[in-house]
Amino acid sequence: MPVVFLLELMLLGSFTGCFAGMLGLGGGMLLVPFLTFMFTYQHFPPELVVHMAIATSLTTIVFTASSSVRMHHKRGAVQWRTVRWLGLGALLGTFVGAHVASHLHASWLALFFGGFVGLSALRMFRGARPDASQAPEQHLPAASLVLAAGGGIGAISSVLGAGGGFLTVPFLRWSGVPMRTAVGTSAATGLLIAIGGLLGYVSAGLGAQGLPPYSLGYVYVPALLACSATSVISAPVGASLTHRMPVHVLQRVFSLLLLALASYMFYKGLQQMGWVATRA
């Protein structure tokens, strides 16, 4: 594997980790488009590029979420009784979703990612987010419904290559969980989502043809290790920058970046469908 490519992956991990630290978000929505571009540039099989980008991005969360969960647990911000059902549903949903996604054409995965992330970016640009000022009375649904909600969150996360915090936190806030606890509980759920994605995409990709060297199923191990190592280091740096820069400006910049990346994924989807000419 070219050394330059490895350095580029490490730089990408630093970049996404820093943004994740600044905004308290996972880096999956950033990683997937960039990995798609980099894997394409390295001439990975076109029909596998998006699958590998999503699988690798999702698996990096195993490393980043582990340290986050420990921090939230020490501060008593993880509601483990909720994680028991929400996390179990998310793990199963992500595992099944990974197998379903492995049978979808890369174009549909790219279009779904582009559309979903594009809408999320527009919502962020407008400043819409859960109200953290009030903590309504808790009214968590029955365990079966929490399990089903976790399954849905996991299934969507398996297609986006993200930890699901953009869905888990609003669900927990709607259920009356205080914002601080919702974030910690979401981090623990995200770890189980990542584990489900790891198991799902590795097992689903074991028989895939044309995988590049150093692949474990659909997970590209060099990218997993390089991005994880540097993102863990850079995330605290980003968190410290949050207190020096206006958060609303960071959110606007991040949302515009997400819009650009979503547009690229939409372009890749149309290209895979043959609606956009491929450069010679």
DSSP strand count: 2
Terminal CA distance reads 24 Å
Order of helices and strands: HHHHHHHHEEHH
Low-confidence stretches: 129-135
Mean pLDDT: 82
The number of helical elements comes to 10
Q: Mind explaining what this structure looks like?
A:
It is built from 10 helices and 2 strands. By secondary structure, the chain is mainly alpha-helical. Helix 1 (3-23) packs parallel to helix 9 (221-242) and helix 2 (28-41) packs antiparallel against helix 3 (46-74). The longest helix has 29 residues, at 46-74. The model is unreliable at 129-135 (pLDDT under 50).
List keywords for this structure.
2 strands, mainly alpha, 75% helix, 280 residues, two-stranded antiparallel ribbon, 1% strand
List the helices and strands and how they pair.
Layout: H1 3-23, H2 28-41, H3 46-74, H4 80-102, H5 106-125, H6 143-160, H7 165-174, H8 179-205, E1 215-216, E2 219-220, H9 221-242, H10 247-272
Antiparallel strand pairs: 1-2
Helix pairs in contact: 1-2, 1-9, 2-3, 2-10, 3-5, 3-8, 3-9, 4-6, 4-8, 5-10, 6-8, 7-8
Quick structural overview:
The chain is an all-alpha fold and 280 residues long.
